Amino acid sequence: SSGSDENDVVVVGGGPGGYVAAIKAAQLGLKTTCIEKRGALGGTCLNVGCIPSKALLHSSHMFHEAKHAFSHHGVKFSNVEIDLPAMMSQKDKAVSNLTRGIEGLFKKNKVTYVKGYGKFISPSEISVDAIDGENTVVKGKNIIIATGSDVKSLPGITIDEKKIVSSTGALALQEIPKKLVVVGAGYIGLEMGSVWGRLGSEVTVVEFGPDIVPSMDSEIRKQFQRSLEKQGMKFMLKTKVVGVDTSGDGVKLTLEPASGGDQTSFEADVVLVSAGRVPFTSGLDLDKIGVEMDKGGRILVNERFSTNVSGVYAIGDVIPGPMLAHKAEEDGVACVEFLAGKVGHVDYDKVPGVVYTHPEVASVGKTEEQVKASGVAYRVGKFPFMANSRAKAIDNAEGLVKILAEKETDKILGVHIMASNAGELIHEAAIALQYDASSEDIARVCHAHPTMSEALKEAAMATYDKPIHI
Ligand code: FAD
């Protein structure tokens, strides 16, 4: 069996954290095995997260544009229809192609792939309940836990993935619900709400807190919420769901103000519970080897991703830090670099965050609220896409760029972009931040015309001096 000879590295979990760690380890010359219970590589991200959601966001956006925007460009149809099964199969094909692609990368890099559920026997041995029924023991000098996260459930709400769905069910609905209630206004809820809203659902987002996406710069957030409202999304903030009744045709929700008060009821066909994600470690038998966790169930690690148990490491959604695929990948690479005797590094303060709605919202570094709280004197430079020639040319001018820089040194502290392609535009800012650039550094870089990236240059000019085009 695959367990008979010892590995240098055994990775438990084949998500973006785990599979990237496994490939990198093999590239660094370490004998590596990756164990995955799902039967497909890519984890949450590829199977039920980032990728299928982006597929549906793109397809639904195309439909919405065909219906509402193409005629402004002189492109007319007599009829536009949705073929939901075709839309879903496009998404499924994208997912299966990509998961098989990772299997190919494992072969190419000589990573051993074991399909099954792993649990600790000792700090250097994992017992695997294999998917094909055969049990094995996989041994490793080093073991990396990359078991990721799972949907957070809410008390009193049972997810059946039909009427009450998690993001996983929301990615695979077989009918367009007339009324969709999204519980939780984080990025996953807003993305999935956008998909179904564009396809025709009436979408209401119920959020316990006072704000949507609380981590967002509040000035950007206000504009973003207005934009979503213009698209027809409704928000009930400071509201909690105290009960759901699925006995009838649809779902009857009982709502209450977050601070207490009179209850109201609300009808929906489908309810999406998107109240966050929790680290997933069940069935791993971590208590057997004594791995330390925090109160939220996250595995505690030091700056080398080592747990308190020697030889056992953890990366990705299962440890503290932003629960994002690219952060998990960075963890994976850095962890393995340390194992190979090199130096790895991940700066959690410079992990970009993107909400893939339309427009997208992307940010890197500090929000204005965080800069204010830090007590540093700062400047703000902004530039709206209404004044950007490319955005105007293509009639896609919603949004703005906002740059925060230290007043004294002009060093960039944070960049926030709302734009149709903000998720791509943000990386110029991510590089600037990583290299401790000033806003003047960005402004003095020649940007091609006409591009939406010029808005970043102009916002940089507005930070330390004056923009040209507004
Ligand atoms: P995971 O991807 O969760 O992978 C862990 C893997 O370990 C799983 O495949 C699981 O089956 C396996 N596993 C667990 N326990 C065991 C065991 N005992 N034995 C064997 N295998 C085991 N992030 C972004 O950056 N961008 C996005 O656009 C984005 N969109 C998202 C949309 C949705 C709807 C969701 C739900 C998430 C999204 N995320 C996004 C978050 C992203 O999916 C996660 O941050 C990322 O997948 C974390 O990677 P990971 O490797 O730590 O864990």
UniProtKB/TrEMBL annotation:
Q: By its UniProt entry, which PROSITE patterns does this protein fall under?
A: PYRIDINE_REDOX_1
Where is each FAD/NAD(P)-binding domain found? 8-332
Say if the entry is tagged with keyword Ribosomal protein. Answer: no
Instruction: List required co-factors.
Output: FAD
Q: What's a Pfam family in this record?
A: Pyr_redox_2
Q: Which Gene3D superfamilies match?
A: 3.30.390.30, FAD/NAD(P)-binding domain
The record places the active site at H449
Record flagged with keyword Thylakoid: no
Ligand binding (FAD): K54, G118, T147, G148, S149, D317, M323, L324, A325, H326
Cofactor, how bound (note): Binds 1 FAD per subunit.
GO MF entries: dihydrolipoyl dehydrogenase (NADH) activity; flavin adenine dinucleotide binding
For the biological process aspect of GO, one term held by this record is:
2-oxoglutarate metabolic process
EC number per UniProt: 1.8.1.4
Q: Which GO terms describe its cellular component?
A: mitochondrion; oxoglutarate dehydrogenase complex
What reaction does this catalyse? N(6)-[(R)-dihydrolipoyl]-L-lysyl-[protein] + NAD(+) = N(6)-[(R)-lipoyl]-L-lysyl-[protein] + NADH + H(+)
**Where is NAD(+) bound in this sequence?**
G184, A185, G186, Y187, I188, G189, L190, E191, E207, G276
Q: Which PANTHER family has this protein been placed in?
A: DIHYDROLIPOYL DEHYDROGENASE 1, MITOCHONDRIAL, DISULFIDE OXIDOREDUCTASE
Q: What else is known?
A: The active site is a redox-active disulfide bond.
Q: Which NCBIfam families does this chain map to?
A: lipoamide_DH (TIGR01350)
Identify its protein family: Belongs to the class-I pyridine nucleotide-disulfide oxidoreductase family.
The name of this protein is: Dihydrolipoyl dehydrogenase
